[in-house]
């Protein structure tokens, strides 16, 4: 069968699988970020009542395989209660697994904020919530974005594992396409290109967020300057004439 004919025949199923993959990636990514922030703040707390439970949760979900977590949630947990929908299980497992990894990025970014900033909030008698929201987290946000970007791309690729609980996501449909073509066309051409384009879009989106976060801290150009087709205007310092030095020996 011709490759284009096979691709056309499987186009609708590939599209449905792609939409499922995007849904898993976006929903799980957002929820994983929320979990990461909560666990990261708890793990970095000075209170043992908050720090110890957070460390246990983070180490458990980081130390166990995502495959095992999916199997346990979908096949074992229903033995002790009601069964869960496959979509909910997939989102739940991806959220907890990657949220645990993201918690370490959040905690490390919080501790990377200069000590002088923490001391300044103490000198101003700020409450814990106020100093985190107004001073510490905005600086940590700019630091954690590169790590969160990598985790989101990993989550995109990791979402393919949900086929083991019966979900026909994009990789599963690629394997069906492989049956009527070959592995090179289905996986190395269609799959490689599509996953690359999605990962590129996610990376560029997160880079724009990073640019915005740094600009709010006064550490770089604004989004408007980055996206503008016109070259940036020179600053006052750049427009200041510099003395002309002529060569020659005395």
Which helices and strands, and how do they pair?
Layout: H1 3-9, H2 11-43, H3 48-63, H4 66-76, H5 86-112, H6 115-123, H7 128-158, H8 170-180, H9 183-216, H10 223-227, H11 236-239
Helix pairs in contact: 2-3, 2-5, 2-7, 2-8, 3-5, 4-5, 5-7, 7-9, 8-9
Descriptive overview:
The chain has helices at residues 3-9, 11-43, 48-63, 66-76, 86-112, 115-123, 128-158, 170-180, 183-216, 223-227, 236-239. With 250 residues, the protein is mainly alpha-helical. The longest helix is centred in the last third of the chain and has 34 residues, at 183-216. The radius of gyration is 24 Å and the shape is flat.
CATH superfamily, by name, is MetI-like
| CATH top level assignment | Mainly Alpha
The rounded Rg comes to: 24 Å
Helix content: over 70%
- The number of helices is 11
Low-confidence stretches: 235-240, 242-250
Query: What's the average pLDDT?
Result: 85
Please state roughly what percent of the residues sit in beta strands, choosing from under 5%, 5-15%, 15-25%, 25-35%, 35-45% or over 45%: under 5%
Name given to the CATH architecture: Orthogonal Bundle
Beta strand count = 0
* Terminal residue distance: 83 Å
CATH fold-level topology: MetI-like fold
Order of helices and strands: HHHHHHHHHHH
Apparent shape: flat
The number of domains: 1
Q: Gist?
A:
This protein is mainly alpha-helical and 250 residues long. The chain has a single domain (3-226), classed as MetI-like (MetI-like fold, Orthogonal Bundle), CATH 1.10.3720. The protein has helices at 3-9, 11-43, 48-63, 66-76, 86-112, 115-123, 128-158, 170-180, 183-216, 223-227, 236-239.
């Amino acid at each position: 069968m011709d490759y284009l004919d096979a691709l056309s025949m499987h186009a609708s199923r590939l599209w449905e699988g792609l939409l499922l993959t995007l849904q898993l990636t976006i929903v799980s990514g957002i929820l994983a970020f929320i979990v990461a922030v909560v666990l990261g703040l708890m793990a970095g707390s000075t209170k043992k009542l908050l720090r110890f439970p957070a460390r246990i949760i983070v180490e458990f979900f980081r130390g166990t395989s995502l495959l095992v977590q999916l199997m346990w949630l979908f096949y074992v947990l229903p033995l002790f209660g009601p069964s869960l929908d496959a979509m909910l299980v997939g989102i739940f497992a991806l959220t907890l697994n990657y949220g645990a990894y993201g918690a370490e990025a959040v905690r490390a970014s919080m501790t990377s904020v200069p000590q002088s900033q923490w001391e300044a909030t103490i000198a101003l008698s700020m409450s814990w919530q106020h100093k985190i929201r107004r001073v510490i987290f905005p600086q940590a946000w700019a630091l954690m974005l590169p790590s969160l970007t990598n985790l989101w791309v990993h989550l995109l690729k990791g979402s393919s594992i949900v086929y083991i609980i019966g979900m026909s996501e994009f990789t599963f449909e690629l394997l069906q396409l492989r049956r009527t073509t070959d592995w090179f066309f289905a996986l190395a051409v269609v799959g490689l290109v599509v996953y690359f384009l999605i990962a590129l879009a996610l990376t560029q989106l997160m880079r724009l967020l990073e640019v915005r976060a740094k600009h709010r801290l006064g550490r770089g150009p604004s989004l408007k300057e980055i996206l503008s087709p016109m070259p940036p205007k020179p600053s006052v310092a750049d427009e200041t004439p510099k003395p002309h030095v002529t060569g020659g020996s005395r």
